[in-house]
Structure formats: C-alpha cells, structure tokens
Amino acid sequence: AIPWYERAVLYAHRINNERSRKSVLLTTMRNLGLAQKHSSYLLEAQKTYQAALQMDPSNMRVIHNQEVFEEEIKMWTGSSSKLAPGLLATNIRVELITAKR
C-alpha cells in the first residue's frame, strides 16, 4: 500500500491551480513533520487526505484555511505547547464542487 503522504503528493500534482497544489504539498510536509512528534495528528491528517483522495480530483477544490494556518503558526512560535485537536486536519478544507448546468 502507498503511504497516505505519498498519495497526497500524487493527488496534489493532479491539481491544476498552482497555489492550491503548493498548499497541499506544504501542508503534507508540515503534517509529516508534526506527525512524528504527535501520533494523534498523523491519524487526523491521514483521515483528511484519504477523504480528499477518494473524491474525484476533477470535481475538487482545495482551499487553504488561512485562519487555521495563522493559528497554527502562533501556537508553534508562541509559548503554548498545547495544540488544538484536529488543527492540522482542518488546515486544509476540501470541498466538492457540483457542476452548474
């Protein structure tokens, strides 16, 4: 079986929008780094990407959640060592677009 992070990278390369693609790749790398320290976040990240991969990439829009990203940066650069549950999983919000006819 292909690891979730490799599949996330493969999925990212199918995204036409460069900004969205970079966002997925950067978040994947960040999740990998943090997952090594916090195993519970690996599970959260895994769930997020598996859900994304099961959807049809042609119908997919990946939106970077800027507020969550900024919150995450504050938490890692600030004095607080606690991380909000599911923070990494919500860093990228996946939305399915239905075609307008």
TrEMBL record:
This is Uncharacterized protein. TPR repeats lie at residues 26-59. It comes from Odontella aurita. InterPro entries: TPR-like_helical_dom_sf (IPR011990), TPR_rpt (IPR019734). Keywords: TPR repeat.
